[in-house]
Amino acid sequence: MNYESWSIIDAIGKLNKTIYLPAIQRGFVWDTVRVEKLFDSLMGDYPIGSFLFWKIDELHKDDWTSYEFIRDFDEDNPNNKEANLAGVNKDIYLVLDGQQRLSSLFIGLKGSYRYFHYKERKTKLFLNLLKEPKRNEDSPEELAYQFEFRESDKTDTPDKELWYEVGKIMNFEDSEYAKKDISGLVHSLEEERRNNANMLIGRLHTRIHTYKSINYYEEKSQDYDKVVEVFIRANTAGKPLGYSDILLSTATAKWKILNAREEIEQFTDSVNSIGNGYEFGKDFVLKGCLYLTQELEIQYKVKNFTKSNLEKIENNWSNIKKYLEDTVDLISKYGLANKNIIAPNALLPLAFYLLKLGKKNYIESSHIDDVRNQNIIQKWLILVLLKNVFGTSSDTILKRLRDVLLQQKSYGSFPFVELNKELAIEPKFNEAELEKLLLNEYKNKYCYSVLSLLYQGRDWKDKKYHEDHIFPKSEFTEAKLRARGYDGEKVKSYRKYYNTVANLQLLTDSENLDKRAQSFDKWLATRDANFKNRHSIPTLPSYNFDNFIKFIEERRKIVTDKLQTITL
Q: What is the span of the domain harbouring residue 51?
């Protein structure tokens, strides 16, 4: 790779003239501290990293949506403006790697940084000319030079601070002119401080005007897919960028009427606010866009987000929103909380089914056929989640299930038989699966789902339930078990089961707070008559801690029987 070099003043002079940002770039995210640290690195002759620019031929510059660099940053309005390239009659560069650094240099040298801290503050970058630069070997993160974003050069400690607006250095071709410009400010200082101020001005001038600190490589390909792949690889070392961020930016550049980024981010937030809240990412919504626009390939790749495909998605956006939202409403209605959704993509066939069903107000329907159908959907979803159907070949499975749904002659009933046949799974749990389910431990990814199956008919809507140890977890340390006089074999058996499904239940917030670490026999005595039946608690002569293994044996039988009834 052959790198070219520019001085900082040359690079800054090209921003928003021949250097712009591609749509795949996210916004400016650095805070003032990181900007100050960048300038400290420049002054201390530390490398600031290489840059990657995409060179666009003049003939192709209008093929891509480009954005301007932010000069005056405002936390309340941090978005980059779309660039108008009408008057640019030459090749342009789009920055693939280095946007945060170039934006920071632009803001520090030519612009401002507006933020809220007790009040709105519009600040510029200043350098304290009286601070003698020193590196602290014991604390390498500490800055040697005192750069600071300030509202003005005023100070309450003039004997320690003389603030110089950094951007002024851009006005002088020669460092001697810059020193002359501050002569009136430093003439009354003692010689050592005057020399320090002049040294800092000279050093700042050479780093901005003379040194070629911007070392960049040109990517000249005009193939957008290749460039996006280059961009992803170049950015893996910095703040992680999700693939969804890249594709969202691509969509933003290609949707005609709506703003893809705003629409998808707002919808993701809206879906996540349903019920007790979920944590679906933009990846899930984007995959839903491909899945519910049925003629599209569903692989989550750049090549599937072409201009024509994105146009189809935009035209189908209202349907996508409705049926993804209906699906999340449905799982919320039946108690499938965020912890249950082990594989979010498992919801997409349900959303596609609801789209093909096309019934208004289906989720709230009390019609006997709709209620029965929804119960089938609930059981099918839990079965495929606990059977871990959606594994490494998720896209292949999703496509096969969509093909099955497309082949249906009618959509009155959820076609679980055909779907299960395609997946080659039984419509219930076999003995080996049941044993595995019973060994799920507290707060692992399957535990909550298994426990939820024990509460058929529970009203889950807008309620939070916690996984709770029936016999308190705190009593199962080896030391406490030994203190009870238990031998090694008994200690081993107690510790084998105390953290598994057989010793867990789902309690409401208030119940869990009330129970805390009380012994189970005492706490059970304060519960209502239906408590044992509600929580699958076996009837025993005693619930003393010494009877824990007997409790586990009997409860495993009850739990197994209940899980065996989960069948389609």
A: 3-215
